[in-house]
C-alpha cells in the first residue's frame, strides 16, 4: 500500500473533496477577478454621449475651417504662366503647382523656394 496516496496529500481518487473544494475556491476567486474587471471597465453612457458630441463639434469646426481656407485660396489671383513655370521646373502636375502658388499668395519665388526646401 505504499504506492497509494493518502487523501490528505490530494491523492489519487478522482472527485476527492479537498481537491474539489480547492478548485471551487479557485473558481470563485477567478470569478471575482472577472467581475471586478467588468465593474472597473463599465462605461458611463452620459460621458460617452458627451465625448461623441465633442468629437462631432470638433469635426464640424475642422470642416468649416477647411472650407474657409479653400475659399480663401480660390480668391488668390495667379498667373497661368507662373503655374506652367512651376510645373515644368519642379516636374509636378499643374494642379499641385497651382495649389502651391495659391498657398503662397501667387508669388512664384516663394512657391519655388518652398518646393526646393521640401524636396531636399
TrEMBL record:
Nascent polypeptide-associated complex subunit alpha-like UBA domain location is 76-116
A single Gene Ontology biological process assigned to it is: protein stabilization
Cite the residue spans of the region called Disordered: 1-32
Query: According to the UniProt entry, which residue ranges have a biased composition of type Basic and acidic residues?
Result: 18-32
User: What name goes with this protein?
Assistant: Nascent polypeptide-associated complex subunit alpha-like UBA domain-containing protein
Q: Which CDD domains match?
A: UBA_HYPK (cd14361)
Q: Gene3D superfamilies, from UniProt?
A: DNA helicase RuvA subunit, C-terminal domain
Amino acid at each position: 500500500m505504499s504506492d497509494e496516496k493518502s487523501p490528505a496529500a490530494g491523492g489519487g481518487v478522482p472527485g476527492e473533496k479537498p481537491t474539489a473544494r480547492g478548485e471551487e475556491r479557485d473558481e470563485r476567486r477567478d470569478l471575482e477577478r472577472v467581475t471586478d474587471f467588468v465593474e472597473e471597465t463599465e462605461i458611463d453612457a452620459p460621458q460617452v454621449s458627451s465625448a461623441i458630441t465633442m468629437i462631432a463639434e470638433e469635426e464640424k469646426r475642422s470642416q468649416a475651417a477647411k472650407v474657409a481656407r479653400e475659399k480663401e485660396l480660390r480668391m488668390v489671383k495667379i498667373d497661368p504662366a507662373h503655374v506652367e513655370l512651376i510645373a515644368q521646373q519642379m516636374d509636378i502636375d499643374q494642379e499641385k503647382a497651382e495649389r502651391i502658388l495659391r498657398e503662397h499668395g501667387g508669388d512664384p519665388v516663394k512657391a519655388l523656394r518652398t518646393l526646393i526646401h521640401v524636396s531636399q
